[in-house]
């Protein structure tokens, strides 16, 4: 059996920082697909992606609560928190690429891979050697150099086992300031509620909820509250039909669901600032968007460090980013064979945890004309 990679409080804190980065790393791909949808079209797909994005914010909050409960400090502004796309996630024996894509069959396939249930065939297979890809690998072990996990589910299983092990030998593990906990009154999501973490039981419940809502490992297609796991939400887009209670995982029997892949802005996949013409208005808007996204992450950091009331503002700001998205995705990117521009999520390195240091996430820039 593979030896534990979590042996003390510091190991747990390192893992929970990775977990926060992992949960966040799905948000830019989801938002890129969501905002690539042309207005008044693809309402089914837009709703599914939006709901999942909000629930990823719930997952971020739950990890932050666990981290605060053991005396860590959530920081979404630290260098490297936002990965450079494409990034890699585990898919069993292999890794797959996570890009910033417009809504497309390829994007939906990636979303399914992100959320796909995956249990290692044996305890020894939980940890695998990280491939030499040259790109950032998510769901890696911060304490076992060069190793990553078989799946996101196995990553969380390692943290839960580590919590149990460390708590057994450290009765003061959960000594974090209770005032830093984000309670359910500060966040609303149709799929689940915030769990205040104060001990081993509540910490494990929070982490198991994240894994179950994403992959549906513990409860199948629907959870105890009748909510679809994220994996099956996205499978509906592939299968063209909604699930109903009692359905086979590969045979939803609910109302039909339609997607028009043509009613989407064909943005450049994983665009970078270097792709924008130097000195152009479009490049300026791309930089402004990155500053606004940095402000969004700074607002979340403050919410998780004693200002929980700001969490509601942060959720709203995530969708106020629409203006910045529209100023990019509606404009062709010169030199890209007719593809359109898109946010690059390259966050300025100097960004700190003070939203006043940059434009608010919802602050609009000047319109870009074609």
Helix percentage range: 40-55%
**How is the largest sheet built, in terms of strand order?**
1-2
Multimerization state: single chain
- Shape estimate: globular
Count the E strands. 4
Helix count, per DSSP?
10
Average pLDDT rating: 88
Structural class by SSE content: mainly alpha
DSSP strand content: under 5%
From the N-terminal CA to the C-terminal CA, the straight-line distance is 60 Å
* Estimated radius of gyration: 20 Å
- Summarize the helix and strand pattern as letters: HHHEEHEEHHHHHH
Q: Residue ranges: pLDDT <50 for 5 or more in a row?
A: 353-370
Please outline the major beta sheet.
2 strands, antiparallel
In short:
This protein has 370 residues and is mainly alpha-helical. It has ten helices and four strands; from the N terminus they run H-H-H-E-E-H-E-E-H-H-H-H-H-H.
């Amino acid at each position: 059996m593979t030896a534990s990679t979590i042996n003390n409080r510091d190991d747990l804190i390192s893992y929970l920082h990775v977990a926060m980065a992992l949960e966040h790393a799905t948000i830019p791909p989801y938002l890129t697909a969501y905002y690539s949808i042309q207005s008044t079209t693809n309402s089914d797909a837009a709703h599914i992606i939006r709901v999942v994005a909000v629930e990823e914010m719930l997952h971020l909050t739950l990890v932050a609560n666990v981290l605060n409960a053991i005396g860590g400090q959530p920081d979404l502004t630290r260098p490297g928190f936002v990965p450079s796309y494409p990034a890699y996630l585990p898919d069993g024996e292999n890794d797959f690429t996570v890009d910033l894509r417009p809504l497309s069959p390829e994007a939906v396939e990636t979303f399914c891979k992100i959320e796909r249930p995956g249990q290692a065939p044996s305890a020894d297979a939980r940890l695998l050697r990280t491939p030499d890809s040259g790109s950032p690998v998510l769901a890696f072990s911060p304490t076992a150099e060069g190793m990553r996990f078989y799946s996101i589910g196995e990553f969380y299983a390692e943290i839960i086992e580590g919590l149990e092990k460390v708590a057994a030998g450290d009765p003061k593990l959960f000594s974090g300031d209770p005032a830093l906990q984000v309670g359910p009154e500060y966040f609303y999501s149709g799929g689940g509620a915030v769990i205040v973490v104060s001990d081993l039981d509540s910490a494990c419940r929070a982490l198991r909820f994240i894994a179950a809502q994403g992959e549906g490992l513990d409860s199948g297609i629907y959870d105890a509250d009748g909510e679809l796991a994220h994996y099956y939400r996205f499978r509906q887009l592939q299968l063209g039909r909604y699930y109903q209670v009692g359905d086979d995982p590969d045979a939803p029997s609910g109302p039909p669901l339609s997607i028009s892949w043509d009613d989407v802005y064909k943005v450049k996949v994983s665009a970078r600032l270097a792709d924008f013409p130097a000195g152009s208005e479009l490049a300026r808007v791309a930089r402004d968007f990155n500053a606004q996204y940095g402000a969004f992450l700074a607002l979340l950091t403050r919410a998780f460090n004693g200002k929980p009331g700001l969490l509601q503002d942060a959720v709203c700001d995530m969708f106020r980013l629409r203006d910045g998205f529209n100023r990019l995705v509606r404009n062709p990117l010169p030199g890209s064979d007719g593809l359109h521009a898109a946010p690059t999520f390259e966050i300025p390195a100097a960004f700190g945890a003070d939203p006043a240091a940059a434009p608010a996430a919802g602050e609009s820039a000047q319109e870009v004309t074609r």
